[in-house]
Amino acid sequence: MNRVFVLVVDILMVVTAAVLAIGLRDNLDIEWDKVERLFPYMLASAVAAVAIIELLGIDRSLWRFSALGDYLRIVVAAVCVVFTATAFSFVYNRMEGIARSIPLLHLGVTIWLMVGMRVAYRLRYLRQLRANPADAAASRAVLQSHVLLIGLNSLTDLFIKSVEETGATNCRVVAVFDPNKGGGDVRLHRVKVYRDEVDLATLIGELAVHGVFVNRLVLATPLETLPEAVRDDIRTLSQQSNMRVDMLPHLLGIEGAGDEHQGAQGQSPRPPSGDQSRASLDPEYVACLHGPYWVLKRGFDALLSGVLIILLAPVIAVLSVLVRLLIGGRAIFWQERPGLFGTPFKLYKFSSMKDPQLRDGRWLTDDERMTRFGRFLRATRLDELPQLWNILRGDMSFVGPRPLLPVDQPQDSHARLSIRPGLTGWAQVQGGRGIQPEDKLALDLWYLRNASFWLDLRIALQTVLVVLYGERIDRKAIQEAWDDLRNLHRNTRQQAVDSIMPGISRHL
User: Fold this and answer.
1) Whole-angstrom Cα distance, residue 401 to residue 407?
2) Where are the domains of the chain?
3) 3-state DSSP assignment of residue 382
4) CATH number of this structure's domain 142-251, picked from the four choices 3.40.30.10, 2.60.40.10, 1.10.730.10, 3.40.50.720
5) Picking from 46-55, 235-244, 380-389, 396-405, which range would have the lowest pLDDT averaged per residue?
6) How many CB atoms lie within 10 A of CB 250?
7) pLDDT-based confidence at 500, cuts 50/70/90?
């Protein structure tokens, strides 16, 4: 579906739900004067829906592949839309002539319409797949691959869904074998999962007795995690029969995952965990990261961001509409940035520039793409408002080192990436774009060692001043950060010398 079409349909459902809410309250007797009194509320709902639907990405999901996550986002969006419309109506005319039960009914009907349409579309799509073109004789003529999946995890679920939804006639999942768990037989998407104490060779033999001849094994879990007996059976089957053995990560194009020929260690490469990243830091930084403030900080971030998203929903809605009208293209722009421990996340902003390419194929320069409204958004930092969603999700914090592109990351940035990036930070209020990257790193490390509630409050207040009066470089703060960094390294070297002195003296 076209995104604009989906957005229009969703907005129409939001507005229609408000009218239906009147009908439900009055026993399906919809009077025009009541609809007229509801018009400001409906208009506020439509405007809020534009921003919230786009912010949550609801218009980007394919209805035929909709799932529980999409429906939960619709519920969140409906709550935000109804709250925003109710708040606007109350401020506008104290909801005069509107029954207090209307917003609650509107919420329920909106969710029912938006989720119901997607569920109906998905069921229709699945019916089309089951009634797929090929007749029975043609299907039997196709040489089928009878797959036995080994391992039970999210990749197993993905493979079975892919086979079902593509309607493939040359591939059939006959069973799932999970040797690492007991507990009897279960089913996954109508495919039987064998989880009891049966070996692989016996299982394949039992299936053959029932006329199901397995000719392909697909491993959804790394080979080295399987019991030794299962690994031996797989090797024997691949060497002594025509059994084809595939690694599911390889089929998905994930090179190096689960390959037993990766070297002497036999381990698949994994990204460093949070504990490993912490272990690579200076002990002074590790001690700072274990402070209780970081736990309180995350809870405060989640609470405040949720409240601000609700309170600022009308502002976000208006800005979304203005961006679409004055700049064009998508209202929300995202860019992947390294987050906590270098884990990439999508950072959201309001679009402040036009699309980079014209319809005739000509590419625009950054100066040509920038607009007056875009400069206004950047100067007032309003383009950062969608990052409240990043903070609520846990990708960011209100205060911390600003998330930079990978190419802009300073060298030795492990400590800088050991805390969540921030909407604002110590480096931003002490010079921002006017100071060198090395100075920003020193300021960020100073913040890591001195973070507290009062420091975060000070940074927030200074950010307001930066927005009002522009960036100013504080050389004293930069010098203090560098002095603190030099003292830290000096103390670290002294501790290393002290730790080896007893050993030296014993050899003298």
Assistant:
1) 16
2) 3-130, 142-251, 278-491
3) helix
4) 3.40.50.720
5) 235-244
6) 15
7) very low
Q: Between vectors from CA 268 to CA 267 and to CA 273, what angle results, nearest 5°?
A: 100
Is 45's pLDDT higher than 80?
A: yes
Closest residue by Cα to residue 306 from 381, 383, 384, 393: 393
What tens digit of pLDDT does each residue of 100-115 get? 888 899 999 999 999 9
Strands (E), 211-327: 216-219, 244-247
- Specify the long-range contacts of residues 326-333, CB closer than 8 Å, at least 24 apart: 326/371, 326/373, 327/351, 327/352, 327/353, 327/354, 327/371, 327/373, 327/374, 328/354, 328/355, 329/354, 329/355, 330/54, 331/50, 331/51, 331/54, 332/54, 332/55, 332/386
Whole-model pTM: value is 0.54
Helix, strand and coil in the chain, % to nearest 5? 60, 10, 30
Torsion from C-alpha of 415, 419, 423, 427, nearest 10 degrees? -30
Kindly report, residue by residue over 403-440, the tens digit of the pLDDT.
Answer: 887 777 776 667 788 889 999 999 888 888 788 888 88
What pLDDT, on a 0 to 100 scale, did the predictor assign at position 221?
86
Is the CB of residue 203 less than 8 Å from the CB of residue 149?
Answer: no
